[in-house]
Amino acid sequence: MIHVNSNYCKGCLLCMEYCPKKVYVKSEKLSKKGVFPPEVKYPENCIKCHLCELMCPDFAIIVEDKDDK
Amino acid sequence: MLPTIFCTGCGIGSVMNFSLRAIHDLNIDMNKTVFVSGIGCSSRVPGYIYSDGLHSLHGRAIAYATGVKLANPELKVIVFTGDGDCGAIGGNHFLHAIRRNVDITVISINNFIYGMTGGQVAPTTPLKSKTTTTPYGNIEYPIDLSMTAKVIGAPYVARWTTAHPVQCINSIKKALQKTGFSFVEVLSPCPTSYGRLNKMGTALDLTKHFKESTINVKLYEKMLAEGKTTDKMVIGDLVDIEKEDFNTKYKKFCGELK
Ligand SMILES: Cc1ncc(C[n+]2csc(CCOP(=O)(O)OP(=O)(O)O)c2C)c(N)n1
Ligand code: SF4
Ligand code: SF4
Ligand code: SF4
Questions:
Q1: Pocket of ligand 1 contains residue B39 by CB under 6 Å
Q2: CB distance B90 to ligand 1 below 6 Å
Q3: Does the distance separating the beta carbons of A54 and B165 come in below 8 Å?
Q4: Contacts of residue A18 in chain B, CB cutoff 8 Å?
Q5: Tell me: the pLDDT tens digits for B220-234?
Q6: For A39, B30, B41, B222, which has the most beta carbons within 10 A of its beta carbon?
Q7: Residue B55 and residue B75: Cα distance in Å, rounded?
Q8: What own/partner pairs with CB < 8 Å and gap ≥ 24 does A22-31 have?
């Protein structure tokens, strides 16, 4: 499970760019903060490398290793 | 506390993220840790960490940290400092804490400019770079913080960029475990001042630029051996040696006087 906290996200898109599996796309909906946060479009491609979590300067992403079915 | 006050994509958040992960992985006791900073955007980091902290004066973080460590050697002392804070107004404290080999860890967030005050030239600003005080380009040679730490004799020195999260976390871990002065410099995007004034784009563009304008020390040494050279900035673990720290020396010295 990937959680993106749209209250913390500032829309820098670093997570999107550095994800090796291109799991994210830029959302088309403006967040409450007035930015276009990343949207988890292809969660099935995620390899749990946690790079997006590390690259986020705003602590907005949590990648859980276990997927709840 | 979150979100932070930092601008979109600012690398200070990344360095804070890397540092906290390193501290977490090492299981460091937050009750025995003090975070010290001066003034600047990067100096706001301790304010977001649930632990004791000292938000001191511009340039004086290392002086305060030295005091904390000497007064209570049991404490782990971690300094967050900007390139201006560390290399300009705090330059002397930086040199002399290294010379004394005080057992503290200094994490310097180098964005090549004075971020907080609106983008003035810093001692790290590259030649020709535009800042609000060098609108036609900087003509002063920049100081290399890591190489300075190396020549003054710091037992641990590493430099990475915010585009090297895993390597950077590993180096912060090594720095935190080193007894003596440990220094980690992280090249970090300031899109609002440095990026905007130099038309270098967003934080994303700046991280790409940092990746392209740096070279790993292992590759660099190989190049040197082949008689080649480069003007790219060298990154990686630059120094890792053992050297008796000030507190240990002081304790021994006091014992000898008895
Ligand atoms: C004694 C003193 N001189 C000048 C200032 C103004 N001042 C505040 S922050 C700063 C520089 C910030 O640059 P840096 O240390 O590189 O940190 P950054 O904001 O880029 O993270 C300056 C000159 C001050 N607060 N105190
Ligand atoms: S954990 Fe890795 S693969 Fe999964 S979304 Fe994050 S960066 Fe992409
Ligand atoms: S890296 Fe963090 S702040 Fe930047 S877009 Fe992704 S989630 Fe948002
Ligand atoms: S001014 Fe620069 S250094 Fe300061 S928060 Fe904004 S991007 Fe970061």
A1: yes
A2: no
A3: yes
A4: 163
A5: 999 999 999 999 999
A6: B41
A7: 17
A8: A23/A52, A24/A52, A31/A6, A31/A7
Asked whether the beta carbons of residue B17 and residue A13 sit closer than 8 angstroms, the reply is no
Non-local (6+) Cβ contacts of B175 within 8 A are B105, B107, B156, B158, B182, B183, B184
- B216's tokens: 């790993």
Contacts of B197 (CB under 8 A, 6+ apart): B113, B119, B129, B130, B131, B132
Chain B residue with the nearest C-alpha to that of A35:
B8
Angle between helices B91-100 and B61-71 (to 10 degrees): 30
DSSP β-ladder status, A24-26 and A38-40 = antiparallel
Residues B193, B174: Cα–Cα separation, whole Å: 32
- Going from the Cα of A22 to the center of ligand 3, the distance in angstroms, rounded, reads 14
**Cα–Cα dist B194/B115, whole Å:** 8
**How many of the other CB atoms lie within 10 Å of CB of B111?**
31
- Compute the distance between CA of residue A21 and CA of residue B27 in angstroms, rounded to an integer: 31
Q: Do A57 and B3 touch (CB under 8 A)?
A: no
> Which atom of ligand 2 is nearest the CA belonging to A61?
6
User: Which residue, among A26, B192, B6, A18, has the nearest Cα to A6 in the 3D structure?
Assistant: A26
Beta-bridge partners for B108: B81, B185
SS3 A14: helix
- Segment A5-63, tens digit of pLDDT: 999 999 999 999 999 999 999 999 999 999 999 999 999 999 999 999 999 999 999 99
Amino acid at B52: D
Q: Distance, in angstroms, between B217 CA and closest chain A CA?
A: 23
Grade residue A69 by pLDDT with cuts at 50, 70 and 90: low
CB of B6 sitting under 6 A from ligand 4:
yes
Residue B124 alpha carbon, nearest atom of ligand 1: 16
